[in-house]
Every structure is written in structure tokens, then in C-alpha cells.
UniProtKB/TrEMBL annotation:
Its EC number is 1.2.1.41. Residues 9-283 form the Aldehyde dehydrogenase domain. It is found in: Cytoplasm. It catalyses: L-glutamate 5-semialdehyde + phosphate + NADP(+) = L-glutamyl 5-phosphate + NADPH + H(+). Keywords: Amino-acid biosynthesis, Cytoplasm, NADP, Oxidoreductase, Proline biosynthesis. It comes from Endomicrobium proavitum. Catalyzes the NADPH-dependent reduction of L-glutamate 5-phosphate into L-glutamate 5-semialdehyde and phosphate. The product spontaneously undergoes cyclization to form 1-pyrroline-5-carboxylate. Belongs to the gamma-glutamyl phosphate reductase family. Gene3D superfamilies: Aldehyde Dehydrogenase, Chain A, domain 1, Aldehyde Dehydrogenase, Chain A, domain 2. This is Gamma-glutamyl phosphate reductase. One of its GO terms (cellular component) is cytoplasm. Pathway: Amino-acid biosynthesis; L-proline biosynthesis; L-glutamate 5-semialdehyde from L-glutamate: step 2/2. Its main location: cytoplasm. The keyword Thylakoid does not apply.
Length: 421
């Protein structure tokens, strides 16, 4: 596709989304839920077709030498497709945030002032490798009254294309305004550049992918960006931790899905329990095929660990690799997390309530956990149905983002001829 032709195509899609967003914004909760349930039924009916097209992407990724843990992100199986469909149904059942009265003010001027929740308008998603985002993003955006523009990565093109077609066709048939879901069907990377220039049409841009992708988008657009942040997550095993609990959490946080953003990358262990904890956890990591890198104090206890260098403390591995550091105190653990972490998800394992409370108060992250795995930082786990991402920003949203995070507010003022004097 020629550059000018691509530019006009992306512009046309954005303009169509803008038009559709105005109709979508005034739809009732019942109308939107009907659309979502139709999407879920269509996805269920076409599950085999979805898996067939996904297998094409997965085989191409393997032939291209994509790392196994990254190929895992790309892969859909029956369980994942069923979870995706259930996420759509769960969101359909959630309370519609649009129209919610956030504040009901009674100023002295005898006017009625309410702050209400309204859709953002048009949300653009730029994402890599994860075909489920196609469905999750469309589902949440539609329920919150927004049109959505979807630009997935080339590695998932076959999966994204079939998913977008299924949800669009079924949604329009159920009453969705035509154009409310826009799928940019090209592997040409310049389509992203064209999309970034459309600040007159797009109200919010959400990138989900590598740190390089997020940084590129931030530097090259005037559209407000709400990024799904880097996940450099920590677990701290306190001196008063229950050993069994600590081991279970440390294994789950690292090993369940090591390529995802809420997987643990660094394990911090208090010096008073290091001699007991480290040999046990290293045995479990060895069984899971995890490469262990340790600080000098850790390697004194587990000499089989590789030497951890400075760069390890700030590396998101996306792989079966873990960095382990022995710390002298809770304060040192908190300081390490706040220095090297990405403000995503961090956990403490302890039976000491005062230590837990201090950790909760002083660790500056979007999700802070006590005696729980960082893997739990997820919209579906939190009851949001599904999520559009996990924000590590402090404005406009932070943490797992669901329906409310895809809305804004406006003031509704009713008077009786009131004027300002």
C-alpha cells in the first residue's frame, strides 16, 4: 500500500470511529450489554476458526525464532479462548459506569451541580503479540461507551484479523453503530505513525508492548497516552515470613507465566532467613528450569547461582531468569524496590502486620501485595471482567484498568436563570 493511500485509510477509519463514538455515547446499558453478549456468542461459535488462524501465527513465530516465553503470549488454546469469551460475558454483566453521579454539589448560588461519568470518545490501542487484547479492548471500550481503533502487531495478524471480524460483524448485527470498532488491517509499521498524528480524532492512546514501543509512542504523538507499563516486579521475603507460603508465592510469581508484566523479576530475602529460604527456593527453581542470579551474599549460600550484575536489578527478563538479593532489613528492601522497580506490582511475605503495613505505605507501586503473588494484579482477578492494561502512571489511571478508567467526567449544571454577579 502506498504511503498516501495508507494515510487516507487510517484517517478514514479514525473519522468513522469519531462519528460512531457520538452514537455509542448515548446508548443504554442494556443496548451495550446486548452487543457484548452477541460478541461472546459469536466468538464461542467460531472458536475452532480462531484456533486455526492462531496456529498459523504461532508456527510462523517458531520458524522466525521467537523466544518460547514470547510465543506463549501469542498462543491461544481452548482454555484461553474460553477465558476470553467469559471475560466478555463478565463485562456485559458489570454495572455501566456511564452516567454515574461522581459528585452532587449544592453550591450557595442555588444551582444544581453534578459531576457525572461520561465516555472518553475514541480510544486507540497499539499492541504487540497478544491477540486477546483485540477482544478485551473492544469489549471494555464498547461497554464504557467508547469507539476503539485496534492496531495489533504483525506477529499476531492472522489471529487479530479473525477476532476483529467476528466481534465487528456480530456487534453490528446486534445494534452497534457501524465504525465503532476499527481494525487497522496492515503489517506496515507506518500505519502507527499515521495513527499517532490523528489527535483531532483520537482521545486516548493505550500502547501495550515493549518498553521501546511505549517510548516511541510517547515521543511521537500529541494524543494523551496511558501506557501499560514495564513490569519489573519484586517479592520480599521478610524475616517473619511463613516458609511454605514464601516458597509457593516465589514460585508462582516467577514461573506460572514468566513472560507477562506481573511476573516477578527480583526476589529479595531477609538475611535472617536466607540460609533456610535460598536452598529451598533454588531447588524449586531448578525443577522449573529457572536460571538464578544472585548477589554475593546470596551466592555464599547458593554457590550454583550465577553472579548478578548491576544491570540485573533493572532488567525485565520476560523469561525464566530470576535475580536474588539478600537484604539486611525491611527498609533496605523497600529502598531497593523504589530505586529499581517500575512501580508496577510488588509483594511482601510476612506474618508481621506492622512490617506489612509499612511495606504497603512506603512501596510506591500501582499494586502492592501482602502474602499474595504479583501475578494476581489482573483485571479479571480484581473483578473488572477483563482489563485494558495495567498502568504504572499516576494520571489518569493507575493499576489494572477496567471500565471506569475508560471514562472521564463532566459537570452538569441546572439553573433557573442564574447569572454571575
Amino acid at each position: 500500500m502506498e504511503n498516501n493511500e495508507l494515510k487516507q485509510k487510517v484517517l478514514s477509519q479514525a473519522a468513522s470511529a469519531k462519528d460512531a463514538s457520538r452514537a455509542l455515547a448515548v446508548m443504554t446499558a442494556q443496548q451495550k450489554s446486548k452487543i457484548l453478549l452477541a460478541m461472546a456468542d459469536a466468538l464461542s461459535k467460531n472458536a475452532k476458526d480462531i484456533l486455526f488462524h492462531n496456529e498459523i501465527d504461532v508456527e510462523a513465530a517458531k520458524e522466525a525464532g521467537l523466544a518460547a516465553v514470547l510465543t506463549d503470549r501469542l498462543t491461544l488454546n481452548e482454555a484461553r479462548v474460553n477465558a476470553m469469551i467469559q471475560g466478555v460475558r463478565d463485562v456485559a454483566a458489570l454495572k455501566d459506569p456511564v452516567g454515574e453521579i461522581v459528585e452532587d454539589l449544592k453550591p450557595a448560588q442555588n444551582i444544581d451541580v453534578k459531576k457525572i461519568r461520561v465516555p472518553l470518545g475514541v480510544i486507540a490501542m497499539i499492541y504487540e503479540a497478544r491477540p486477546n487484547v483485540t477482544v478485551d479492548a473492544a469489549t471494555l471500550c464498547l461497554k464504557a461507551g467508547n469507539a476503539v481503533i485496534l492496531k495489533g502487531g504483525s506477529e499476531a495478524m492472522n489471529s487479530n484479523r479473525i477476532l476483529a471480524k467476528i466481534i465487528y460483524d456480530s456487534a453490528v448485527a446486534a445494534g452497534m453503530p457501524a465504525g465503532a470498532i476499527q481494525f487497522i488491517d496492515t503489517t506496515d509499521r507506518s500505519a502507527v505513525t499515521e495513527l499517532l498524528a490523528l489527535d483531532k480524532y483520537v482521545d486516548l492512546l493505550i500502547p501495550r508492548g515493549s518498553e521501546e514501543l511505549v517510548n516511541f509512542i510517547r515521543k511521537n504523538t500529541l494524543i494523551p497516552v496511558l501506557s501499560h507499563g514495564k513490569g519489573l516486579c519484586h517479592t520480599y521475603i521478610d524475616k517473619d515470613a511463613d516458609l511454605k507460603t514464601a516458597l509457593e508465592i516465589a514460585v508462582n510469581a516467577k514461573c506460572q507465566r514468566p513472560a507477562v508484566c506481573n511476573a516477578m523479576e527480583t526476589l529479595l530475602v531477609h538475611k535472617d532467613v536466607a540460609a533456610e529460604v535460598l536452598p529451598a527456593i533454588c531447588k524449586l527453581y531448578s525443577e522449573e528450569g529457572v536460571e538464578v542470579r544472585g548477589c554475593p551474599l546470596a551466592r555464599n549460600i547458593i554457590p550454583e547461582a550465577k553472579e548478578a550484575v548491576e544491570a540485573d536489578w533493572s532488567t525485565e527478563y520476560h523469561d525464566k531468569i530470576i535475580s536474588i538479593k539478600v537484604v539486611n532489613s525491611l527498609d533496605e528492601a523497600i529502598a531497593h524496590i523504589n530505586k529499581y522497580g517500575s512501580q508496577h506490582s510488588d509483594a511482601i511475605v510476612t506474618k508481621d502486620k506492622s512490617a506489612a503495613d509499612k511495606f504497603l505505605a512506603q512501596v510506591d507501586s500501582a499494586g502492592v501485595f501482602v502474602n499474595a503473588s504479583t501475578r494476581l494484579h489482573d483485571g479479571s482477578v480484581f473483578g473488572l471482567g477483563c482489563e485494558i492494561g495495567i498502568s504504572t502512571q499516576k494520571l489518569h489511571a493507575r493499576g489494572a484498568m477496567g471500565l471506569k478508567e475508560l471514562t472521564t467526567t463532566k459537570y452538569i449544571v441546572r439553573g433557573q436563570g442564574n447569572i454571575r454577579k
